[in-house]
Amino acid sequence: MKLVSVIIPCYNEETTIGQLLDALYHQTYPINHMEVVIADGGSTDNTREEIRNFHLNHPGLNIAVVDNPKRIIPAALNIAINASNGDYIVRMDAHSIPESDYIQCSVAGLEAGLGENVGGVWMIKPGTGTWIAKSISLAAAHPLGVGDAHYRLGIKGGVVDTVPFGAFNRATLVKLGGYDENLLANEDYELNTRLRQSGGRVYLDPNLRSVYYARANLRELARQYWRYGFWKWRMLLKYPQTIRWRQAIPPIFVMGIILLILLSIWLPITRWLLSGILLFYLGILVLGSARSARDEKDVRLLFGIPIAIITMHFSWGGGFLWSGVTSLFTKHKKN
What is the DSSP string of 74-124? Predict the structure, then answer.
């Protein structure tokens, strides 16, 4: 049986790191054939203490903590890969909780030749117990919020563009040269793009399931999706052919709204058009949230889910557009 290295980028994850380590400890894959490598970006909370305490109480699981002085996720992953020894490498996040057969199914998928990267489905849970956190978690798994992102929607498996995290043969990651440290987000998508361009396959196995904790409030959600949009533009500069319809709609919509707002200063009829578009948009979001509100028996979700989706759309689209504008000035300065 081959050694599996679980690599984890980490920064200030005291509330979830213990849950993740406990989930890894109780995997069906033998823990004497597993190691956990955590690349910590200098946590200022009790993350390292939580890791030490867990290790003291569970000495059977090999846990190593390495420093990530760059404090960015791609660098953390590369540092963890270099510090690991496994034949297989499984990438996890510090705020995700894999089901008990996650590692075993990942290895089985690789050995069955399903793909060079085998990943699974997110079961998205609220970051806290508030109604807005619940709204955010439902929006993050809603087609109106994330389009056709298969790993968020839990649909049937098969070859896809990308998966969250994933399991690899070490040789695959070495051949690809690891993660691109010029990107502060979209590092998984970028790696999977290079993998596919080299002839590899990314496989989504719906039997691979992990809990993912969504952002706890709208401010954190906005920052997250602004960062996603910003760095998606930078990635598309290298791989323009990878743009998908669900990624193009938010910036187009945001740009359209901005143009209509500007035109409405001089053209009164544009105000009516702008009002009609926004009312139609809001109506679609409310109707799309009705089923979740009914299933959860919480009328507040009729407001919360649309607010979360609006935050996602405008933050992602705004970050994307801002990245495009600033990259033009950056290029001009370089020239």
Answer: HHHHHHHHHH---SEEEE--TTEEE-TTHHHHHHHHHHTTS-SEEEEEEEE
129: which DSSP letter? S
Neighbours of 249 (CB within 10 A): 14
Interval 99-128: pLDDT, tens: 999 999 999 999 999 999 999 888 889 988
Coil, helix or strand for 263?
Answer: helix
Non-local CB neighbours of 181 within 8 Å, separated by 6+ positions: 70, 72, 74, 75, 78
Using CA of residue 252, residue 255, residue 257, residue 260, what is the dihedral sign? negative
How far apart are the C-alpha atoms of 302 and 202, rounded to whole Å? 36
Copy the structure tokens of residue 265: 């200063």
What is the pTM for the complete model shown?
0.86
For residues 212 and 164, is the Cβ–Cβ distance under 8 A? Answer: yes
What distance in Å separates the CA atoms of residue 64 and residue 59, rounded to the nearest whole number? 12
- Rounded to whole angstroms, the Cα distance separating 43 from 112 reads 38
SS3 142: coil
Comparing CA positions, the residue from 229, 243, 216, 242 lying closest to residue 314 is 229
DSSP for residue 42: -
